[in-house]
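Translate sequence into structure tokens.
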Amino acid sequence: MIALSLFSIGRFTTLTNHSNAVSHSNKVIRTLYRAEVYFKDVDRWERGYILANDTGYIRAINGASDSLVQMLDSLDALLSDNAVQSRNMIDLRETIGSRIRSLHENFSYIDTSHAKEASPYYFEGRKLTVNANRLFRVMHATEIRLLKERQDKQVFYQKLTTSTIKTLLAIFCMITLFLFLLLMRLMRAGILYQERLQAKIIDLERSHSELQDIAYSISHDLQEPLRKIQVFSNMLIVRKSNSAEDDGTKDTLTRIYGSANRMRSLIADLESLTNLTRIDEQKASVNLNTIIEQVVSDMNDTIKENNAVVRVEDLPTITCYGSQMTILFRALMDNALKFVKEDTKPEIYVSYRIVPESELADGGRPMPNQQFHCISIADNGIGFDNRHISDIFRMFRRLHTEGSRYEGKGVGLAICQRIMANHEGYIRGEGVPDKGATFKLYFPV
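Result follows.
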């Protein structure tokens, strides 16, 4: 449409140029006519002076001569773009100049000689008048011919411009109709997409509700059978402890009791993760220094038992769910104290800085020009291979086997990731085997 608009502007410009050219030729013809009239006045008043010897004719001739000079100057300016007419103009100026000089010489001859017959200057002036009139006719004919050509072009481009406007109007109407139909189609597609999306959301909400019901059933209905298994196996262990027989039954019952206890712990963690999807509290401004101090205080016995050193930088105040922050930092501190190397004094370092969104370019979709509070929890424990980074945040995924000396159920980091999602933030992990691990928490500023 822009290209067609530019094309139509070009048509209008061409038509305007031809219209201006026609106006220019008409102006040249009018100026030629006026110059010719003044020239004829000079010639007529010369004869009047010869016959009547009245000085009033001289004043009239001088006035007509001045006007004639002005007309010739105007013609010079108007014909400057036409080489042929410019050459004719040079000849006309020379001829008229000679005619004016012969006129004055004729007057001088008449005034001094008082002769009755015509002077030779008069006959020379007649020849110059004939030549000037011829040049006037030539220039008139040339300009009229040029005017005719320009008028023909003007008429042609008027018709062409009219047809162009009609064609462009038809094209614009078709383009507008096409765009309207395309827009309607896109709107219908958008409406259908919204309807399908709404249906998916309803299905998702229903599935989410069903999963919550399943999680509730797991966390409540399965707890009672497990509790009974623990109670009865514990009773049998006590009986076997009082018996002198040792047929391996006591060891089997101990294993049953331990497995049931572990399953109850897993169900409790699953219930904790499920509860994080239902947020009952409001976000508030929380000083994370208070949270980390409380967590360190609660874990003081474990810290002393491992002879660990905990160093914490000054942390920011952010808007968050306070109870979830306690769970988050407790889980990460518990990991740092759990996966320690033998014969190594555990060291945990909690640091803070503000980072741009470019640091998170490899994951998630942070807002452009967004800044983040970055809180790092680094330790000098056993670390991990970064090839397993995608596994450690998945539910019930452990990097260590059942028989390993390192405890863990594979739930803690999944809970941490859920909490960060609730805060529109991100958690990243980096590990070096036998060197330690660092977990970074990114909260939007």
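Note: The radius of gyration is 54 Å.
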